[in-house]
Amino acid sequence: MSGNDLVFRTMRTGQPRDVTLRPFNEIYYDYYNVYWDVLTPAKYVERKAALQEEAHPQITQITQNRRQKAVGSRQKALRSRHRRE
Q: Alpha helices of the chain — where are they, by DSSP H?
């Protein structure tokens, strides 16, 4: 990263892509904490497969049903307000 000695980029360690690391005091547009798991290549493949397997039933459930139930406090509040009117 030209011109800045405190900016680092991972090389072939971040998945699915490399990560640029910058000092927090230079990031004005985001406030957050960073946590990441350190995995061996074999454990990464295992974790990725488990996450994909976990997501598949959710995707299948959503695509099989044409209409989904409205969930969440905003929908409940709107329905409640509508009944009172």
A: 41-64, 73-84
Total number of residues shown for the chain: 85
> Where do we find the tokens 């011109």?
3
Per-residue pLDDT of the chain (85 residues; tens, 9 = 90+): 456 678 888 888 777 888 888 887 777 776 666 777 888 889 999 999 998 888 776 665 665 555 555 555 555 666 665 555 5
Instruction: Report the distance separating Cα 8 and Cα 1, nearest Å.
Output: 7
Q: Which residues pair with 21 in a beta bridge?
A: 8
Cα torsion 80, 81, 84, 85 to 10°: value is -140
Beta bridge partners of 9: 20
Tell the residue number behind the tokens 């397997």, with chain if given: 53
